[in-house]
Design brief:
The structure holds 2 protein chains of 2 kinds. By secondary structure, chain A is mostly helical. Chain A has 4 helices and no strands. Chain A is flat, with a radius of gyration of 32 Å. Chain A starts with 7 loop residues before the first helix and ends in a 7-residue tail after the last helix. Chain B is globular, with a radius of gyration of 17 Å. Chain B has 9 helices and no strands. Chain B folds into 2 domains: 71 residues, Rna Polymerase Sigma Factor, Chain: A, CATH 1.10.1740; 93 residues, Orthogonal Bundle (Arc Repressor Mutant, subunit A), CATH 1.10.10. Chain B is mainly α. In chain B, helix 1 crosses helix 2 and helix 8 packs across helix 9. The chains are: A mainly alpha, B mainly alpha. At the A-B interface, helix 1 and helix 2 of A face helix 1, helix 2, helix 4, helix 6 and helix 7 of B.
Chain lengths: 157, 173
């Protein structure tokens, strides 16, 4: 690939970097690779990476996955239809409604306890502190992003 | 494997500048090659395949893992600790400079200067000069903006020039 360098130094650096000799790989690299291969050989076929499976296994695996997907899709379709047309759906709606009621009354109870124990002023201060904390968190995240961009964008590594 | 181990290791080391990580990547590359031996075993393009896989694994490593622990060091002034590392490496170089010829010394100094660059500058320079990647592709692969790649390469070159000039003076070569 042809390079258009703007300065003499760029051209010189390119030539000098390309002229650097290869480094010596560690002496134990080969032994480590052989050890890892032996360790992998001892694994059962289903624990080895997918791309190392034989073609027959790959096709069988793909077919099994497709079959499983189809079964789940058909099951979900018929299951949803059966549930939505049954009396069970109405029961589920009632059950969800009562769950919301419980959450609502729990929130009211907490607010009432807060008013009683802390008093309205203390509760207001607590709410204010929560608001300020949330705002500062948002502001600091914003400042962090701006500074980060100004310092040269996202770091590579 | 013996014929290619230096090439794979060198490619990984120049992108990562870390011996342990480069060795891990090299090991992973050869394991992948072993798994695909039927496809690439006798191919004349095996060298290219190994180099591409090495480069891809290194880029994944750089973008995926190092970003996590560097998140909180973004505000660090550029080159803060790199300068001290570089100084220490230069001391080592000074110790061995007497026994070899000038061109060898200069090559070694260039290697050390390259290792001392911040990760983002070194990776961009390695991809541009060693791998002949265009700016836009480097930006895409490193998931950063084009302007950042250009800035990193420019700053990296300037830093290398300054460091090499300083080293030559200090070593008297």
């Amino acid at each position: 690939m042809k390079r258009d360098f703007e300065t003499k130094w760029e051209r010189e650096l390119d030539a000098r970097l390309k002229a650097l000799p290869e480094m010596q790989a560690p002496v134990d690299l080969l032994a480590n690779v052989m050890g890892a291969i032996e360790q992998r050989q001892s694994l059962a076929w289903y624990r080895r990476p997918y791309y190392t499976w034989s073609n027959g296994l790959k096709y069988a695996g793909g077919f099994a996955l497709a079959l499983l997907g189809a079964v789940i899709a058909i099951g979900a379709y018929y299951g949803f239809n059966a549930v939505s047309s049954s009396a069970g759906a109405a029961d589920a709606g009632i059950w969800l409604e009562s769950l919301f009621d419980i959450a609502n009354s729990l929130g009211r109870s907490v607010a009432a306890i807060g008013r009683t124990v802390l008093g309205p002023y203390a509760l207001a201060i607590l709410l204010c502190a929560t608001f300020v904390y949330g705002s500062l968190f948002g502001t600091s995240a914003f400042v962090y992003k701006v500074l980060r961009q100004r310092m040269g964008g996202e770091h590579v590594a | 494997m013996r014929s290619y181990q230096n090439m794979v290791y060198t490619t990984a080391y120049r992108l990562l500048a870390n011996h342990a990580e480069a060795q891990d990547i090299a090991q992973e590359v050869f394991l992948k090659a072993y798994d695909r031996y039927d496809e690439i075993g006798g191919s004349p393009r095996v060298g290219g395949w190994l180099k591409t896989v090495t480069r891809n694994l290194c880029l994944n490593h750089l973008t995926r893992y190092r970003k996590r622990w560097r998140m909180f060091s973004d505000f660090k002034r550029e080159g803060d600790d790199d300068e001290s590392d570089y100084g220490a490496n230069l001391e080592d170089e000074r110790a061995v400079a007497g026994g070899s010829d000038d061109s060898q010394d200069q090559r070694r100094l260039l290697e050390v200067a390259l290792e001392g660059l911040p990760d983002d500058q070194r990776a961009a320079i390695a991809l541009y000069h060693f791998e002949d990647m265009p700016y836009q592709e480097i930006a895409n692969r490193l998931k950063v903006s084009l302007s950042k790649v250009k800035t990193d390469i420019m700053r990296g070159r300037q830093a290398l020039k300054a460091r090499l000039a300083g080293s030559r003076e200090e070593l008297g070569i």
